[in-house]
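Repro:
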Amino acid sequence: MNGIVAKELKFLDEALKILVYSYEACQQIGIKESYALEELDKFEALTSRFARTSDMLIKESFRLIDILELEKPGSTIDRINRAEKRNLISSGEVFKKIRYLRNEIAHEYLPMAIEQIFKEVLRLTPHLIDSIGRIQKWEPSR
C-alpha cells in the first residue's frame, strides 16, 4: 500500500506546483471587467487546474485515505466530512463550495459568469493548496 500512497503524493505534488504557478500569475492579473486574450488564457489554465486538483483531492486522495482508514465508501459529501474530521481540510463547507465551483467550471459557458468564476477560484485556491500540504503530512491512524 505504501507504493500507492507514494504515487498519490507524487501526483499531488505535481498538481500543486502547476496550480501555484497559475494561481500566482492570475493573482497578478486580478479581477477586471475585461481581459486581454493572454490573461483569459491564464485564467482558463487556472480554472482547469483548480478543477483537476479538486478532483484529485476529493475523488482520489480522500478516497484512498478512507480505504487506508478502513472506512466504507461513501458519497462525495461523506469523503469531505471525513477529511474535515481528520483535519485534512480547513472546512467541510469550503470544500463543498469547491466541489460546486468545480462543477460550474465544467459546465459554464456564459461569458458574464466567467468573472465570478475567476473571483471564486482565486478565493478558494489557497484552500486546495493548504489541503495538499496537510495530506503530505498525513499519517494513518493506528
